[in-house]
Amino acid sequence: MTNKLEKPLAVVMWSGGYDSTLLIAKLLREGRRVMALTFVNNAQSREQRIKEEAARDELTPILKSLYPNGFEHYSMTVPCTDLPATYDKYIGHDKSDTNEAYQSTLVSDQRNCQPVLWLGTLAMYLPYIPNDSEIMFSYISTDRTLVNLSHIEAVISNMADILDKNVVVRFPLRRYLKSSVLHELYDISPKLFEACVSCEYPSLSYRKQCRICGCCIAVRNAIINLSTATGVPNTGHNSVWPKYLRRWFGLELVESTSPEDKIDISESVEEKEDSERVL
To answer: Buried b / exposed e across 187-215, counting CB within 10 Å, b at 16+?
Structure first.
């Protein structure tokens, strides 16, 4: 007989990036059972797929060592064309402006089409997900996808009705900033923090950061904020954050000798050379 006090299974869409990894770690720390779902498809470059799979392979044993019980990871290889087609199957008969605008992102903006690919993936997994599970996405406050959360909920609700499933959709990190994500993840485990990858640049020569894609810029700015923050635990000039800023982005925090005691960000020669070479 099922224990009525036991919390439902948490089903998390997991990329191997900071946001989804933090969500998994938080749930496991709370004693929740977590099913992490990923997909591999040709929407990404070969190099990007290898980078993300390598990150998840590194993260999985760390999570299991920290939380020996409750973590399962499933990965599915699916042609990219199958995922939007599967998604279309479940959007319902309502061809509203919202649905049409959302589908148009498949062509117009690869970053915006990412939620559609996740929904297509979820549609393939959903028949095997237990009833009463909580399906969780790790979108944070700065993600453009936040404007479409109600649409995501509607699509999943339609999937569940067709498959006679009872599931709940949650967005636990929707109020988080990127700096909050990085700080909390490092606080849980520096190893988890270092194993994550979120760089979108399709090259194996960048194991962690290309320094120029949108994800790298977001992480860089978050680390700068943490490095220069005051009154935040474990941050500041003597914290770990300037080390990552230097190692990953070639930036140094330099304290000014002026009375204002300003902190300036100096770009290294190495980063300038990288930017010129890439561009």
So the answer is: ebbeebbbbbbbbbbbeeebebbbbbbeb
